[in-house]
UniProtKB/TrEMBL annotation:
Belongs to the leucine-binding protein family. Signal peptide: none annotated. Pfam families: Peripla_BP_6. The lineage of its organism: Bacteria, Pseudomonadati, Bacteroidota, Cytophagia, Cytophagales. It comes from Adhaeribacter terreus. The keyword GTP-binding does not apply. The keyword Cytoplasm does not apply. InterPro entries: Leu-bd, Neur_channel, Neuro_actylchol_rec, Peripla_BP_I. It comes from the Bacteria. This is ABC transporter substrate-binding protein.
Length: 710
């Protein structure tokens, strides 16, 4: 009876273990299949329409690098619906028929979700019906949003036609009486630019469009044609609107400048940052353009924070920020599509293309805002980009583009004139840096120039420390020089010497081998009278200043904005008011000499003494043990006597001390093992000896090399 019961118990026990084993196996298979499903399941794709005729190979490469980094970050967070996102590049070489073929073929793939890019109104319109039939969204780079009104799945990353018309009319009013036009044949955007000019001529009797020239794609100019064209423009015109593809734009500008043409030129199809700045005549030219990548020299702060990832892949120079901005805009468009498809209020049974189209509608009027690397994204009523319509200017005798002196920002009732503050910050000293107080003192010269009478009183240094009595900023500003130009743009110029205490956000995880960012952040002191800040070109920015205990690495200017959402008429319509902030950021690395001499060298000495003690014979165990215990206590005492920031996480300094404790403890443990097992186990004794005399020093040397390279 007892034997039968025992047998049954054993069978039940075996069955229980078997069930547990099966459950563990099933769970393991499920987890493994989930992990590998991302590699074997069909990937979603986003088509990126680029044009190698207008983009140089370096520009193309940068776009691919920035997009790849964005996709890596999206896929690391689970992609979309648990599936990986890939980029599918389509190069149409500027040919609408080739683009139609590429899109017709790629759209058949049900895993292709949407398209981005397509820098042309003509090419965007060529594929509009294909996209509509297949319910596929496009975030394109075109301005003629009036042509795509019948296609609700098409959005533009450029400003709309209304903004373009306002900018061009204002420019013609200030700069032109007799304008010439040179355009690309059969290009809708070029035709619309001419239409805007002619519309302005009907309203302004003193303005005339005197010449109109059309050239096909990749037209080969003869020397005689160029001579006649330059002669005609010099005699009869004071302004030129040039709307050809990038290659011919550069060829024609070089030829016209060489033949003595010095009138202002508005760039149509080619971006101002793509104009050949290596030309011998570039410096003397005056160029205008609807700015493609925000404020020249001022990337969005989020994109600036990503820039170190791309620095090695991007050549420095004028085009660096254009390339980063152009790539960042495409990366943002992908992020916007993914966010649109991931919203919770979308129909559950809808396919992913339908979800994207439904989700994008929420960004019209700024009801939702996507916070991207390049910008904060929302769309206007005509489904064009909701950012500011900015006019870029390459002034005569300057080597790089900047904002024109006067801009027009959006308001509830139309456009409001806003001055540009040309601000150059010449740093003299950064000192008294406090990790605990997260503050530093800075002394610098601030040069301000604008067509409006803007002084330091119009600037709010937002990260300045405040007086506890009245919250006044702890800033001292002394006027050094002031003057006003009486010709040209009539600029007001002021030079101040400013000193004060500023705050920063220290990241001390890598202390004492850390790098910190020290910003001087400014914005208008009157939110109703906004201005934009234009810094000088990078080569004119100061990089030599005093900073005891820190080494200069880099500096940049970044912009950010607080978008204030308000309701008009008690919820009838939401409006978004941007409030701009501009930060002059100095990246510096903490000097390592102090930590190396006061901490790292003593710790290495303690580790070396501990290592040498391992050669003492086991019969002198008391001496050996005393040395190693003393070394452990000495390293602990050094830790408490060394400066360390009070944080909720371990810094690199803490990890160095923890490593020291662990290594000395293992040395002490193996010494005890050798003593105890001296006559019991020759194998354990040899293993302990190999660790102490060979493995221990190799680990210490490897860790030291790693720390030096951090």
């Amino acid at each position: 009876m007892f034997a039968r019961f025992t047998h049954v118990f054993i069978n039940l026990k075996d069955l229980l273990f078997m069930l547990i084993g099966v459950a563990i196996t099933v769970l393991a298979i499920v987890q493994i299949s989930r992990y590998f499903s991302q590699f074997y399941s069909a990937h979603y794709k986003i088509g990126i329409i680029l044009n190698s005729v207008e983009l140089e190979p370096e520009d193309y490469k940068v776009v691919q690098n920035v997009v790849a980094e964005k996709l890596n970050s999206i896929n690391a967070q689970g992609g979309l619906n648990g599936r990986t996102i890939d980029a599918l590049y389509l190069d149409d070489k500027g040919n609408p028929e080739l683009l139609k073929k590429l899109v017709s073929e790629s759209v058949q793939d049900e895993n292709l979700l949407a398209y981005i890019g397509c820098k042309s109104s003509s090419r965007a319109l060529a594929i509009a019906s294909i996209l509509a039939r297949n319910n596929v969204a496009l975030i394109g780079s075109y301005s003629l949003t009036n042509l795509t009104e019948p296609f609700p799945n098409m959005y533009s990353a450029e400003i709309g036609l209304k903004d373009l018309e306002m900018i061009l009319h204002n420019l013609l009013q200030r700069k032109a009486k007799r304008a010439a036009f040179i355009g690309k044949k059969e290009d809708l955007y070029s035709a619309e630019l001419l239409k805007i000019m002619e519309g302005y001529a009907l309203k302004e009797p003193e303005f005339k469009v005197t010449s109109r020239f059309w050239f096909p794609l990749n037209y080969q100019f003869s020397g005689k044609e160029l001579d006649m064209l330059a002669d005609s423009l010099n005699k009869h015109n004071d302004f030129l609107l040039l709307s050809l593809e990038q290659g011919n734009t550069n060829i024609l500008l070089e030829a016209l400048w060489k033949r003595g043409l010095h009138i202002p030129i508005f760039c149509g199809l080619a971006d101002i940052a793509q104009i050949n700045d290596r030309s011998n005549f570039y410096r003397n030219g005056e160029l205008f353009d609807v700015n493609p990548v925000g404020i020249p020299g001022v990337l969005n702060m989020k994109l600036q924070q990503q820039a170190p990832v791309f620095r090695q892949a991007i050549n420095s120079g004028q085009k660096r920020e254009f390339q980063l901005g152009f790539g960042g805009r495409h990366a943002d468009e992908i992020g916007l599509l993914i966010e649109a498809a991931s919203q919770k209020n979308l129909p559950e049974k809808a396919d992913m293309r339908s979800k994207i189209n439904a989700g994008l509608k929420n960004y019209i009027h700024g009801n939702q805002i996507y916070r991207g690397w390049f910008a904060d994204w929302y769309f206007t009523q005509d489904r064009s980009f909701g950012g500011e319509p900015l006019l870029a200017w390459k002034a005569p005798d300057f080597d790089s583009p900047m904002l024109a002196p006067v801009q027009f920002l959006r308001t509830d009732s139309g456009y409001r004139q806003a001055p540009v503050l040309y601000a150059n910050l010449d740093m003299l000293d950064i000192s008294q840096i406090s990790d605990e107080a997260a503050s530093f003192y800075a002394t610098f010269y601030l040069e301000l120039s604008s067509v409006s009478n803007l002084t330091v009183q119009n600037i709010d240094f937002t990260n300045a420390e405040r007086n506890k009595v009245n919250q006044a900023p702890l800033i001292e500003a002394k006027l050094v020089r002031s003057k006003k130009e009486t010709d040209g743009n009539n600029f007001y110029h002021y030079l101040y010497k400013i000193s004060g205490k500023f705050s920063f956000n220290p990241d001390l995880k890598k202390y004492p081998f850390d790098q910190q960012k020290f910003p001087i952040t400014m914005q208008t002191s009157d939110a109703l009278n906004t201005f934009l800040v234009q810094p000088p070109a990078f080569e004119f920015r100061d990089t030599v200043f005093e900073s005891t205990g820190w080494n200069y690495l880099n500096n940049y200017i970044g912009c950010d904005q607080d978008i204030i959402a308000i309701d008009n008429n008690f919820g009838m319509l939401q409006k978004n008011i941007p409030y701009y902030k501009f930060s002059y950021v100095y990246e510096m690395q903490r000097a390592r000499v102090d930590f190396t001499l006061k901490t790292l060298v003593p710790l290495l000495a303690i580790l070396i003494i501990s290592y040498l003690s391992a050669f003492i014979p086991p019969r002198e165990f008391e001496t050996l043990c005393a040395i190693q215990v003393t070394a452990l206590l000495a390293s602990i005492a050094l830790y408490f006597s060394t400066y360390k920031p009070e944080l909720q996480y371990a810094t690199t300094s803490d990890k160095i001390f923890i490593f020291t404790y662990v290594m000395i403890t293992t040395l002490l443990g193996t010494s005890i093992l050798k003593y105890v097992m001296y006559r019991k186990s020759v194998l354990l004794k040899r293993i302990a000896m190999i660790y102490q005399r060979l493995i221990f020093p190799l680990i210490v040397i490897g860790f030291t090399i790693f720390i030096r390279k951090v």
